[in-house]
Amino acid sequence: MKTQKQKMLAGELYIADDPELAADNRRISEWLDRYNATNTKSQPERQALLEEAFARVGEGCNIRPPFHCDYGYNISLGRGVFLNFNCCILDVVQVTIGDLTQIGSGVQIMTPDHPRDPVQRRQMLEYGRPIVIGANVWIGSGAIILPGVTIGDDAIIGAGSVVTRDIPPGATAVGNPARLRA
């Protein structure tokens, strides 16, 4: 029988307040306390901290604090990724961000989803759907990236947009819900 953590990582229904997951969340909360106190630290010092918590961190990544995430161990960053102040990544499953992607302040990247069936929701079940953001993507401030979305290389997401569907490479998407601009 799978643990709740194994179910979560597999994208299956799981119970989020499981003790093993709560321990993982406490660990990242302690790390976030340290990381979010690094405003005066150099990029290399912050990079070293990112490497402690994330699955993969490419050379030259910069996340400006404050930053928030669920677990950290499901986040993979390519080379030169930049996230501005106050970004949030809810990473119950994999979040992959490609090389040289720039993400504006207050962007939310959300992998958790909830059953549409009210009986399952009453059981406090949820699941995750991975998010993939390609290389050289620019995501404007305040955008929200919803579960299961893939954003192709070289795409642009307008500030404040809510991305509910995949965005093809090189496309520009804006609005709520985000729609492709001609």
UniProtKB/TrEMBL annotation:
SUPFAM superfamilies linked: Trimeric LpxA-like enzymes (SSF51161)
GO CC terms of this entry: cytosol
GO MF annotation list: acetyltransferase activity; O-acyltransferase activity
Keyword Transferase annotated: yes
Purpose: Acetyltransferase implicated in the O-acetylation of Nod factors.
Residues of the Maltose/galactoside acetyltransferase domain: 5-59
Protein name from the UniProt record: Nodulation protein L
Keywords tagged on the record: Acyltransferase, Nodulation, Repeat, Transferase
Family per similarity comment: Belongs to the transferase hexapeptide repeat family.
PROSITE patterns listed in its UniProt record: HEXAPEP_TRANSFERASES
Gene3D superfamilies: Hexapeptide repeat proteins
Keyword Transferase included in the entry's annotation: yes
